[in-house]
Amino acid sequence: METLTQTIEKQAAVGAAKSTKATNFGGYLVGGALAGAFVGIGCLFMYAGVSGMYVHGSDLTGTMMGLVFGIGLVLVVFAGGELATSGMMIMPLAAIRRKVSALRAAWLIIFMLLGNLVGSIAISALISAAQVFKKDSLNYQMLDAVVSGKLHKANSEVFFRAIMCNVMVCLAIWTINRMKNEVAQIIVIAWAITVFVAAGFEHVVANMTSFSLALMNDAGGATVGASALSLLVAGAGNLVGGMIVVGGTYLLAAKMER
């Protein structure tokens, strides 16, 4: 297995590659949109696949929500896409290793978020046009309750839940980059994602889809303003989780190898 230093260098190289790809503005925006759509597919599976358990209060609801939602990150990793939350760990490491400038790293994270939002809105529009969330359906009831719960959380709660969320996402990305077996990588992704979904943590890109679906289907009392504020707070928490808690901790840990 690679040393921690080697893994950091690999992540920094990935960040440099992202910076190079981003010179093609349109192509990179599409890459971000794909990631947003893939996470949106995970949301769709979660709402459509577990709504019966959720509405009827099964004790296994949280675990099942996490297990099915994991398809989103699996698709991002194996089908390809530019996901901002993993970028929140990768791009700061690239900047610290002087592969890109700090300003460039920050701009790329914002660019990825923009692409993710475009993809989330697009997949939400398709899902809504397909009438997946008809009023009074179990899917609608779950969406209504989940979004209402998100929008009624205090900003401090959203922030700290978002930190923990991206700790799990970035640990998944960090770990699979130290592994070679693809089946094992999928298992790690599924377990890590199950933790954050089951615990009710906040993922800014997943919330882009949830709020878009709520706005398009009149669910959860969602408004554009309230949704935007929640996304900003979740995004800030995700950044702290990826950049400082995971990336920063492994930078310190790697010093023991010298």
Q: What descriptors fit this protein?
A:
single chain; 258 residues; mainly alpha; Glycerol uptake facilitator protein; 80% helix; 0% strand; globular
Protein architecture, described:
The chain is mainly α and 258 residues long. It has one domain (4-257): Glycerol uptake facilitator protein. It has 11 helices and no strands. It has helices spanning 4-21, 25-55, 61-69, 71-79, 84-96, 102-129, 138-151, 155-176, 182-198, 204-217, 224-254. The mean pLDDT is 96.
State the helicity in percent bands: over 70%
Q: How many structural domains in the coordinates?
A: 1
Mean pLDDT: 96
C-alpha termini separation: 17 Å
Radius of gyration: 18 Å
**Top CATH class:** Mainly Alpha
Number of E strands: 0
Q: Which fold name corresponds to the CATH topology?
A: Glycerol uptake facilitator protein
Biggest sheet character: none
| CATH architectural group | Up-down Bundle
Membrane topology: Multi-pass membrane protein
Family: Belongs to the FNT transporter (TC 1.A.16) family.
Subcellular location: Membrane
Main location: membrane
Can you give me a brief rundown of this structure?
With 258 residues, this protein is an all-alpha fold. It contains eleven helices and no strands. Helix 3 (61-69) packs across helix 9 (182-198).
